[in-house]
Write a structure and sequence with these properties.
Layout lengths: L1 E7 L5 E4 L4 E2 L12 H10 L3 E12 L2 E4 L2 H8 L22
Antiparallel strand pairs: 1-2, 1-4, 2-3, 4-5
Length: about 100
């Protein structure tokens, strides 16, 4: 599975490509196959996201799991303060400033 991640242009938040837009929740990620570069070019050109890139991932019983530890940490949030980890279901999550 190939998934896209990047940062929201407005807030800098880590976001994941859903197939139609960007989400704070890695579990909303869509498999982009070989189309990652084209999606990145379009989305960065439209200024919807910046610093986007393709990562390997896998769909597990627990949801989508990026293959590399760096992206797993990006999906969760800060590791030094578990109380600050990302809660994608919170509608105000994109407005958090840490």
């Amino acid at each position: 599975m190939k998934i896209l991640t990047g940062n929201d242009l407005k807030s800098g938040a880590v976001v994941w490509w859903t197939g139609v837009g960007w989400s704070l929740d890695v579990n909303d990620s869509a498999d982009v196959g070989d189309h990652g570069a084209a999606i990145i070019a379009r989305e960065e050109g439209a200024q919807n996201v910046f610093a986007a890139y393709v990562v390997d991932g896998a769909r597990t019983d627990e949801g989508v799991r990026p293959s590399h530890i760096k992206e797993r940490i990006r999906a969760l949030g800060p590791t030094v303060r578990p109380d600050l980890t990302l809660k994608p279901s919170d509608p105000e999550a994109v407005n958090w400033v840490i």
